[in-house]
Amino acid sequence: MTVPPSTHADAAPEGDWTGQAESAACNALLRCWVRETGLPLPDAGPVTIDLPASGTRLEAGVVYRSHAGFHRFEAVRFPSGQPVGAATLAALLVTESVAARGGGPAAVTELVARVSDSTQRIASFLASRAATAGDPGRTPFLEGEQALVLGHPLHPAPKSRLGLSESEACRISPELRGRFPLHWFAAERSVVAAEGDAHGWLAPFAPETPEGYVPVPAHPWQARELMSRPGVAGLFAGGALRDLGPYGPRWHPTASLRTVYSPGERVMLKLSLGLPITNSKRENLRVELRRGAEIDRLLDAGLDAELARHHPTFGIVRDPAWLAVDPPDGAGRPESGLEVVVRSNPFGPADRVWCVAGLLAERPDLGRAEITRVIDALAARTGTGTQDVAEEWCARYFDAVIAPVLWLYRHYGLGLEAHQQNTLVALDDDGWPCGGWYRDNQGYYISQWRAGELERLLAGAGTAGDNRCADEVIDERLGYYVGINNLLGLVGAFGSLVGCRERPLLELLRDRLRSFGDLPVATALADAASLRCKANLLTRVDGLDELVGPLETQSVYCDIPNAFAG
């Protein structure tokens, strides 16, 4: 059963952005709960959620049941008929989870705060986007990066940014089309670490600095927050760090918030940002800086040429350089908060390259997702039904975007954390997928058993980036990020937002996965009865930061039925 969002019985009317935000937040929470508890859903009609820890029962109408997990629900209500808001729903669900896991009330308080913050921000995003048009000079790449107005459809608080004021949000939020100049510091060379020609990359837009100092850019929010850090304050007091203030062109925040883009520059910059966003504070770690630079060296050593030979329309967005200010001895951690990744910008102003998450994002402010517009236009142009167009589109997407990721893992033991926000798809003039990109220096995994394939290109590959790990760990991560987040998320969007039948799409993708039958992760995705899936709600209940600690314990995983296998 497929029902467009606007026809939901309890959907907020158009223009009621607070109601739309509440609905989106409750839907995301319920999707998480259904996925992580295995709660069975009817194809349509009411579902009951029993919560014995609080002695409560909730009811919600199922409007669309998705094989891929992108369900749609009417308003959540108590048995009395009283509606339940997102904060109340979060409190009840988290109380139940905490009771089952032996936690305390602090977890409930923390997550309810995040859900409330996320919901309020979504309401402001929707109101702003509905009231304003985009700039005429915006590029397709930037449109895709700033299209995630609701955020991850299976995260309990996708837009939570606790600690960010309203005025700051207007400047730095991609959803509000923020823009800002970088904040610059002058750092003595003795306290600066760097790799690659970072200074050369930055020179075209950097301010002048005194003799013996180098310019270091920072996110404006981070620049203000840094002043309260004792280690950084010591650098200022000793003269090793000087505040130069805002300077240069205005930059646009992308989907990750802390990576910034300017259409006229050769590079993007991935800046440290100490805000808690989804599951982590987004500050660059030294090991991630080294990891990105090491992958750049691997690509130069022959991996890029091999990838181009086998998959000429797929590329890896490079991180060729970085620089960072060293904290003083005794600061307690190797990062100061002034760590900058220099990322290449391979996209011209006319390149039709979309962040996959943005392309598939639900857009109440526009009335339909961008992918719906693309598929409708293709159907009209070709005179073909929407379902047939969707199947052809998904087949081309797999071949252009997913097959190269699996090829790299099959032949080189290099796993890419290719979830939808880290994956870019190039569309041709008609709207068909014709190429793809991967980006993110955090998400490279090198098989410790097959590292020799990469060591033939670069001695010690995976050592500098500290990212050698067991295949079992890589398989679990790729199974989730590539299989569940990316591919099942694709199918869910086609079903829930475009109105296509999901089962034929799942079967098509399963057949594509079987073409990598010698790769255990692909075989498991195609045919295993269940899959290991990141549990975003439980990860937040446990208060885990996904960027801290061993790979094996950074997130909570659960088993879910395998939709590909039917």
From TrEMBL:
GO terms for molecular function: acid-amino acid ligase activity. It comes from the Bacteria. Residues 141-361 form the Aerobactin siderophore biosynthesis IucA/IucC N-terminal domain. InterPro entries: Aerobactin_biosyn_IucA/IucC_N, IucA/IucC-like_C, LucA/IucC-like. One of its GO terms (biological process) is siderophore biosynthetic process. Residues 391-546 form the Aerobactin siderophore biosynthesis IucA/IucC-like C-terminal domain. Coiled coil: none annotated. Pathway: Siderophore biosynthesis. It holds the Pfam family IucA_IucC. Belongs to the IucA/IucC family. This is Siderophore synthetase component. It comes from Haloechinothrix alba.
